[in-house]
Task: structure prediction
Amino acid sequence: MDGDYVYTVVGVLKPTGSVLDRLVLVNPESVWFVHEGTINDAEERKVIEDERQVTVLLVQYASPLAAASLPRRINTETNMQAASPASESARLFHMIGVGADVIRAFGGVVLATAALSLFIALYHALNERAYDIAVLRTLGAHPSSIAVMVLLEALMLAVLGGVLGLLLAHGLVGILAWWMSQQESLRISAWWFSVGEFWLLLPAFLAAALAALLPSWRAARANISATLARRM
Result:
C-alpha cells in the first residue's frame, strides 16, 4: 500500500545479503502512475506522458570490449552519463585507501605500545617475584620451566586482551547496527564472527612472545643464591 494505490506482490526473491533485499521492484509505468496521480484532463495527461523519461538504466555487457568502450562512448558522444560500478567502487576504495592505511599504522603503533607495556609489566613482576622463583628453583624447578611459565603468562594476557578487544569491537558494531536500524538503513549483524577476525589475534600473540623473551630468559638465568641471600 502506497497512499491510495495498492501494489500486488507477485513474487519474493531469494535473500542476497545486499541492498536488493530492501528494494521493491516494479515496472516504470507503475512509478509514473504513482508520481503523476490521477489526471482527468486528456490534454494534460498527454503532455505528462510525452515528458515521461527513464532516468536510470542498468546495462549488462555482452563482452569485455563493450565494458571498456561503451561507457566512454556514452560519456563523450551523448548527453547521458555512464558509470561502471566496478570502476567507481575501485575509485572509492582508492580514495579511502589513505584513511585505511592510517588506521593500520595507528593499529601498529597501538600494538607496539601494548607490547612495550606488557614487557614493562612482566619485568617489574619478575623483580617482585624473584624470591618465589628462587624458591621454585631450589625445590627442583628447571630453568626452562620457569621461562615457559613467564611466557605462558604473557600469552594468557594476550588471549584475554584479544578476546576483550573483539567483544568491545562487536559491542560498538552493535551500537552502530542499532543506530542504522533507527535510520532504516542497511542491516548489519553485530555478533557474527568471521574466521579472519581470529587471525588478528596472531599479531597479539607474537607481540606478547617477543615482550616475554627477555623476562623469561632473565627468570631462567637468575642467581638463586644471591636472591635468597638478599631476603635473609
